[in-house]
């Protein structure tokens, strides 16, 4: 059922694009009331729903939250994210409940800059000579 959530994410993105095009037309015609109504719908209804759907999709696919949103000004609607994940996931269980809590509260992992060079955060071991070559060729 995760495929249906993917379709929802794509549809919401398309809806936002369509509304933006209509906003531009309304602006060109000087229809301020229509323009404001369209902007309000895009920003107040479509945007938060798209964000919640995308976060739920990422959760169900196992993408860490901190990779999906590195910075944000306000918290997402976690109840909506959870509702979408339970609706489009294969049933909601105690396991999913605990993994959802861990997922949303997991702090971002810092990538260490070490002498081992690139690949250190991926667990790739390098000899000091290989690390020196990697540093020299990378920069």
Mean pLDDT, all residues: 81
Beta-strand portion reads under 5%
Separation, N- and C-terminal Cα atoms: 45 Å
| Percentage of residues in helical conformation | 55-70%
Walk me through the structure:
The structure is a single chain. The chain has helices spanning 2-29, 32-61, 65-68, 78-88, 94-105, 128-138. With 139 residues, it is an all-alpha fold. The protein folds into two domains: 2-105, no CATH class; 110-139, no CATH class. Helix 2 (32-61) packs across helix 4. The longest helix is centred in the middle third of the chain and has 30 residues, at 32-61. The relative contact order is 0.10.
List the helices and strands and how they pair.
Blueprint (H helix, E strand, L loop, with lengths): L1 H28 L2 H30 L3 H4 L9 H11 L5 H12 L22 H11 L1
Offer a concise description of the structure.
By secondary structure, the protein is an all-alpha fold. The chain has helices spanning 2-29, 32-61, 65-68, 78-88, 94-105, 128-138.
């Amino acid at each position: 059922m995760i495929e249906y959530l993917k379709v929802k994410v794509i549809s919401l993105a398309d809806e936002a694009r369509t509304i933006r095009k209509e906003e531009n037309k309304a602006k060109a015609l000087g229809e301020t009331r229509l323009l404001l109504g369209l902007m309000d719908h895009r920003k107040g209804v479509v945007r938060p729903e798209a964000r919640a759907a995308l976060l739920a999709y990422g959760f169900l696919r196992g993408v860490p939250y901190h990779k999906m949103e590195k910075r944000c000004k306000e918290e997402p609607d976690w109840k909506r994210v959870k509702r979408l994940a339970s609706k489009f996931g294969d049933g909601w269980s105690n396991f999913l409940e605990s993994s959802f809590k861990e997922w949303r509260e997991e702090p971002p992992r810092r990538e260490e800059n070490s002498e081992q060079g690139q690949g250190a955060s991926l667990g790739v071991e390098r000899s000091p000579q290989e690390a020196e070559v990697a540093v020299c060729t990378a920069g």
